[in-house]
Amino acid sequence: DGGITQSPKYLFRKEGQNVTLSCEQNLNHDAMYWYRQDPGQGLRLIYYSQIVNDFQKGDIAEGYSVSREKKESFPLTVTSAQKNPTAFYLCASSNLRQGLNYGYTFGSGTRLTVV
Amino acid sequence: GESVGLHLPTLSVQEGDNSIINCAYSNSASDYFIWYKQESGKGPQFIIDIRSNMDKRQGQRVTVLLNKTVKHLSLQIAATQPGDSAVYFCAETKSGNTPLVFGKGTRLSVIA
User: Fold this and answer.
1) Closest C-alpha among B87, B83, B75, B71 to residue B112
2) Which A residues, 16 through 45, put their C-beta within 8 Å of a C-beta on chain B?
3) Nearby residues of A33 by Cβ (< 8 Å), 6 or more positions away
4) With 0-12 CB in 10 A as exposed, 13-18 as middle and 19+ as buried, what is B55?
5) DSSP A31-93
6) A48 and B32 in contact by Cβ < 8 A?
7) What tens digit of pLDDT does each residue of B9-41 get?
8) How far apart are CA A2 and CA A89, in angstroms?
C-alpha cells in the first residue's frame, strides 16, 4: 500500500537534546511538508521541500532543521534551540502537477514531549 | 498577515441531523480550498476540495460551498453520524506550489 510513514509515534526529549523525526513516503510525491500542531490549535508550517536537495522555511522554522537527500524522505530535527518543542508533529506530501496544488496526504504524526 | 479562520470553534449536532461547518478566508488570491477531518491522535484526512472556478462540489454525504464574494467556505455533512465526530480544518492556497494555510479547526461532536 502506498502511504506516508512517520516514526516514532511517541518521542521523549531531554532538555538540550537534539532529536530527529522520520518521515518516509512511497507515493512518488514531489513535495513534502512538516507541520506542528499544539493542543486545540491548527497546523503551522515548519519547513517544506518541493524537490530533492532544496527546502524552504515555513512560518515557525526557528529551532528546527531538515534535509531532503532523497525524494522519499524528509527528516525533521528538533534542535536544542527550540525552546518549546512539546507538540504533535505532522508530515505530509503532495504531488505538484503543472503548478496546481493537490491535497496533502498526512502521516499519523509523532508526539514529542520534553522531559 | 492573511490567514484562514473559522466562525465556530465547536459544534454539537444530533445524530441524523445535517452539520454545517464554516470557514472565512482572507486571501482573495487563494484559488484552491480543502477540508480535512482529524480524529484524536491521528493525522488529518482529506475530505473534499474545491477550486475557485466552482461554487459547489459534492462528495459522499459531504458538500463544499464556496462564496468568493464574501470569501466564505462551508462544509455540509448530511445525516451526521457518530463517526463524523472529529476536528475539521479548512485550508487554502494559491496555485503555483505554495503550501496550504490551515485554519484553527472546528470540533464537531455528534450526540447519539
Assistant:
1) B83
2) 31, 33, 35, 41-45
3) A45, A47, A48, A49, A58, A74, A91, A92, A93, A94, A104, B99
4) exposed
5) EEEEEEE-TT--EEEEEEEEETTEEEE-TT-TTEEE--SBTTB--EEE-TT-S---EEEEEEE
6) no
7) 889 999 999 999 999 987 899 999 999 999 988
8) 21
CA distance B10 to B13: 10
Query: How far apart are alpha carbons A72 and A59 in whole angstroms?
Result: 23
Q: Which residue of A has its CA nearest to B43?
A: A108
pLDDT tens for A39-82 read 877 899 999 999 999 999 999 999 999 999 999 999 999 998 88
| SS3 label, residue B10 | strand
Q: Distance, in angstroms, between A82 CA and closest chain B CA? A: 22
Report helix, strand or coil for B83. Answer: helix
Q: CA A86 → CA A36, A44, A113, B32, distances in Å?
A: 10, 14, 5, 31
| pLDDT attached to residue B9 | 85
Q: Which residues of A touch B99 (CB under 8 A)?
A: 33, 45, 48, 58
